[in-house]
């Protein structure tokens, strides 16, 4: 099993297979526009713009499970991210990342990279998962980890994928 085995919903409510990203390095992030960490959208966008042509795909998964920081509807959220942060990378449908209604993709990500003390729970918005070009979860990064601190590891995976 790997990341490509999952389907997710788009912000328009359509099914999207992650198989569409086969061969790409993925940075998967649970996002929230009203979060104090929302300025990370700028660096996520910079990584997207810089490395998209080399095979990186940044995928944002809005989540409203942390202090009601993503209260808007999917279509409004995507618009807000584009207007406020210039986001052009894919923002998918809003999901739960913890609890019984957690999205199957996130259940898998947490199983593969359980995080600090192995709890498996997502601590907050902007938890990041780096996935190699073969769909394997390589590493989990804490919400406070700035996206540009992951750049060297992304470059290494992109080189390896060539």
TrEMBL record:
Keywords: Oxidoreductase, Peroxidase. One of its GO terms (molecular function) is peroxidase activity. The keyword Lyase does not apply. GO terms for biological process: cellular response to oxidative stress. The active site is at 35. The keyword Oxidoreductase applies. PANTHER family: GLUTATHIONE PEROXIDASE (PTHR11592:SF78). Belongs to the glutathione peroxidase family. This is Glutathione peroxidase. The lineage of its organism: Bacteria, Bacillati, Bacillota, Bacilli, Bacillales.
């Amino acid at each position: 099993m790997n990341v490509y085995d999952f389907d997710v919903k788009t912000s328009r409510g359509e099914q999207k297979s992650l198989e569409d990203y086969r061969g790409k390095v993925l940075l998967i992030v649970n996002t929230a526009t009203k979060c104090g960490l929302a300025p990370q959208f700028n660096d996520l966008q910079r990584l997207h713009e810089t490395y998209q042509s080399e095979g990186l795909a940044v995928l944002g998964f809005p989540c409203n499970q942390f202090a009601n920081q993503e209260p808007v509807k999917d279509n409004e959220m995507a618009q807000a991210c584009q207007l406020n942060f210039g986001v052009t990378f894919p923002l998918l449908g809003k999901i739960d990342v913890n609890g019984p209604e957690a999205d199957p993709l996130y259940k898998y990500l947490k199983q593969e990279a359980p995080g600090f003390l192995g709890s498996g729970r997502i601590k907050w918005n902007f938890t990041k998962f780096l996935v190699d070009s073969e769909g394997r979860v390589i590493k989990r990064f804490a919400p406070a980890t700035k996206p540009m601190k992951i750049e060297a590891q992304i470059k290494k995976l992109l080189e390896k994928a060539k």
